[in-house]
Amino acid sequence: MEQLSIDTLKSEAKTFGEAETAHHERSLYGVTDGKRVGTYLEHKFRRHLHEKYEYVEGSSAKGIDFPELGVDMKVTSIRQPQSSCPFKTARQKVYGLGYSLLVFVYEKTDDESTKIGNLKVLHTIFVDSSRTADFQTTSGLRRIVENSGNADDVIAFLHDRFLPVNDIQAQALAEEIIATPPELGYLTISNALQWRLQYSRVIEQAGQIHGIQRIG
């Protein structure tokens, strides 16, 4: 069996999205729980990959779906394109999650006459790890650095945005930001016990920004 790579993952995601859009699934009829729909699509895509490729499947312990490739898979409805991910450190909001994202955005419909559901995969997007930071945080920090801001300015900004850092962490992060300004991220990341990732900007910018690729 062939070893799964980033390129084959993207190619298979496109093929899978097109096939799923044409597929009608009785077990999904009447299902409104986004988590259940997401689990269905994720498991089906993994089965699709296992037919052709060898790869290490992620677990909750490993944290992401494709640990060898540094990619996590997300499935979200176009009605509210968002998902959660584990919180590791406030630094993720500034420098990115530490891995790339493969995002399937679907629209679900039900056929009342046949009692069958359908998932139309509207967008399949690959977000490189370099673009997985928070847009408002990174754009604000880049402005501060460009305006010759210092560590105190950065710390004030971090506190204004309620980043979950203590004073020592804020000081260290501020010094790193001055020395190495972050890339502009395109996610919206909300503070919570888990990060809440929102994808509207990624959907809008896919194919126009380096590091955000529209696959399907």
Task: Summarize the model shown.
This protein has 216 residues and is an alpha+beta fold. It contains seven helices and ten strands.
Describe the protein in words.
This protein has 216 residues and is α+β, with helices and mostly antiparallel strands. The chain folds into two domains: 2-134 and 185-210; 135-179, no CATH class. It is 37% helix and 25% strand. The chain has helices spanning 6-22, 34-50, 91-95, 135-146, 151-160, 167-179, 200-205, and strands spanning 2-3, 24-25, 53-54, 71-77, 82-86, 100-111, 116-127, 188-190, 194-198, 212-214. Strands 2, 4, 6, 7 and 10 form a five-stranded mixed sheet that branches. Strands 5-9-8 form a three-stranded antiparallel sheet. A two-stranded parallel sheet has the order 1-3. Helix 4 packs antiparallel against helix 5 (151-160) and helix 5 (151-160) packs across helix 6 (167-179). Keywords: Endonuclease, Hydrolase, Nuclease. GO terms for molecular function: endonuclease activity.
